[in-house]
Amino acid sequence: MASDLADSPFFRRRKAKIVKDPPKFDLESYISNYDGFTRIDRLHHIGSHSPYLATDAYRAAIAEALQGKNVQLYLDLVAEYSQIAPDDPEALTDTRWAEEKTRKVQNEQDKLEHELKSYKNNLIKESIRMGNEDMGHFYYACGDWTNALKAYLRMREHCTSTKHLADMALRLVFVSIASKAWLTAQQNLMKVDSAQLKGDEKTKLDPLLSALAGLAHMSLGRFREAALSFINTSPAFLTAEPAAGIKWQREVLTGNDIAVYGGLCALASMDRTELQNQVLANNDFRNFLELEPHIRRAINLFCSSKYSACLEILESYRSDYLLDVFLSEVVGDIYSRIRTKSIVQYFIPFSCVTLDEMASKFQLTREHATIEDELEAMINDGTLNARIDLVDRLLISPPTNPRFNVHNDALSMAQRYEHTLQLRLTRLNMLAAGMEIRPERNSHQRENAPSSFGEGISAGLRGFGNKIGLQ
Amino acid sequence: MAAELLNSLLAFQPDAPEVKDRREYDRHAREFIDTLHKCSQSLFLKGADTPQDVLNVLDPAVNSIAYAFTLRNRIQHAIDKNNTQTLKPGNALWNKLVQFLESFDPIQMRYAGVEYKKLVEYVELIARGVNTPAIAVSPIRSAMLRLDPTTGCFTTTHLNFIRLCLEGRAYAAALPILDNYIHSFPTNIQNSIRESSEYVVPCADSVTSGEFIHTKSGHSDKVTLAEIQEYYVLGAIAYIGARQFKNAHQILEHVLVIPAAGVANGLMLEAYKKWVLVDCLVNHTSVGNSSRFIVRRNYWLLSSIFTFASVASRQVPRTANPSSIKQIRAAAKAYDALADASSDFNNLPKLKSQVAAGRDIWAEVSDLCLFGSRSELAL
């Protein structure tokens, strides 16, 4: 079944992106954790990447889309599904529904716009704000991200309390996460922070904010900041009440997601002591890690220097993470960082290791043909301080002499400093002597032309005057 | 008559007790030079080629001013009369000239700047006349170092010297002068200022040579910016010739920081091109024996880039004028591209293709600059 689907025209076209191995999770139970747009989005992502789950995922997604207002999304899903399984009755476009829905949506939009206009005529701030909010909700439901953003932004001048401001910013974050505009999401998160909430409100929002900030950082490739945000997320996130009418832990990311994202980002960006102190010994994050025991195991193994076992665990979950809508973009990067870091850490205590030993400790990934290639790339970009002996097939740590290095650095710095000073003095001397390259008025005359000569002499006197003045 | 000449020439004795005081020394030296200037050329020619020849009687290390005047007049006369036999290297006047330049008293020659410059020029003239410019290198260098042990005040002699060195391919011979930092340029000190500062006579122990070498002292012609640039660029070529790439890199940076009002000139462009290439050699991280690839013998500078893999850290000195550098970069794209290619590990094909793409440019450059003569550079 799965191999049949992998041959379908849809998957053949996106060969580079499909996940070949079957994932470990069960689609039903996985997707039951999510609600709202992210549910369809995740189903769509899984369906379009994994031939194993494509049928189930698309069916569920299409059924879900039929409940909503986003006609375009429905049409896209059906079009893609018809390329995978043309014979399935679900793959036929329900044109009648689509037409009817489009009309209804149009009617609703007209109605909302009309209402908003009348609110504006009445000049009641609160009503205008709510009218705009309704518009925003409506556009969001239709999948029109730009208009949703605009509608929510228009709420701004009609907000009367800090809570309204924070809600608006959270809504903006929500829309920008749905449209995967991470920079906008980050800016709006900052706005929530600067809304100066106090007391209860603040404690309620803090776990949400740090989790969302972590998500934005991770998607932008800033793994260290992401890891710090995730591990500082309080376990109150799991039980937090809906904020701004959004159930974040169901509509954006779950506690399991936080554990996985946070754990992977920490592995990719922290060294062993940091992992031990900040991740494993962190009471808050422990609650999350308990949800995903294999991540905890991987971190434990990394801390106890069993890198190959750690990498093995991660590798076995690679296909799962490739099917995660947020993680799929960065998982390759994160894995290669963890791998590089493991190799570097593994090599630190040794003065030389045979290449075969390295190859057996670190199973090859698809990126490099042999372990030598990988090590060579790492040595060349400076992450691994070692040399390769191809004759004896050894990886050798070059002898270092810290004393010599320090002296050498100091000497070269002194030289550089002296040279820089000399350059500046040369320049000052030339300025004092009135020597300067000036744009020539007559382009035919090059240097030494009589006109510039005369200039030079008078400039010389001027320069000298300055010099005297300085002294 | 010869005795009369000798008397007037010996009128100034630097060791005499009455000139112990610096100011007295200064006054006497000036008066002496004034009298010598008033003497006609024929006076100096008296007694030439006889045992009582003043050049035999005078000691160049003690009576340097008198010796310089006599020597200058003799050579002038020989050239005027087209009597070049005695001037040829190995003959009497040449030997005396070389001996003088290697042993003159530096304090006295501070006063006789014009004579000093003339004599140095004669050495060059004669050496060129017999088609062996290289033999002038050593005497000129000695003279420069004798007059000013730091050789840090830029004079036209510096430029002539480096040109001679390059023509004779005597790169190593140029290094003692090139290694010295140019700390001042001949300034135009007004007479009123110079004379009012009574303790700053030329014969005093000076802090820098810029105090006695100035536009009025006669040691140097008026120095222009282009000449300074040319000196630095030629100096860099000499360093490259001597395989001292780091020094070449540093001396080229002196050209890049020249004050400019948002524009650049040809020599700056030239310097930048060389600087980019040399930078590849200086800021390298050598990786054993990477493949050596020689395009043609003339391209040795380029080919040596292949022996090192380099890291592109081409950071122009911060004092350089940014808009000038921008203009230069626009004009030297091929070089930047080549340097970028050479910084790529494991990408020899890219480097090869960059070299091939710029083949015409390299050919022109290797003719013009790397092995070029001064006349072409001065264009």
From TrEMBL, chain A:
Residues 98-129 form a coiled coil. One of its GO terms (cellular component) is COP9 signalosome. This is COP9 signalosome complex subunit 1. The lineage of its organism: Eukaryota, Fungi, Dikarya, Ascomycota, Pezizomycotina. Component of the COP9 signalosome (CSN) complex. It holds the Pfam family RPN7. Keywords: Coiled coil, Cytoplasm, Nucleus, Signalosome. Residues 238-402 form the PCI domain. InterPro entries: PCI_dom, Rpn7/CSN1, Rpn7_N, WH_DNA-bd_sf. It comes from Periconia digitata. SMART domains: PINT. Its main location: cytoplasm. It is found in: Cytoplasm; Nucleus. Belongs to the CSN1 family. The keyword Ion transport does not apply.
UniProtKB/TrEMBL annotation, chain B:
InterPro entries: COP9_N, CSN3. One of its GO terms (biological process) is ubiquitin-dependent protein catabolic process. Keywords: Cytoplasm. This is COP9 signalosome complex subunit 3 N-terminal helical repeats domain-containing protein. PANTHER family: 26S PROTEASOME NON-ATPASE REGULATORY SUBUNIT 3/COP9 SIGNALOSOME COMPLEX SUBUNIT 3, COP9 SIGNALOSOME COMPLEX SUBUNIT 3. GO terms for cellular component: COP9 signalosome. Residues 32-282 form the COP9 signalosome complex subunit 3 N-terminal helical repeats domain. It comes from Periconia digitata.
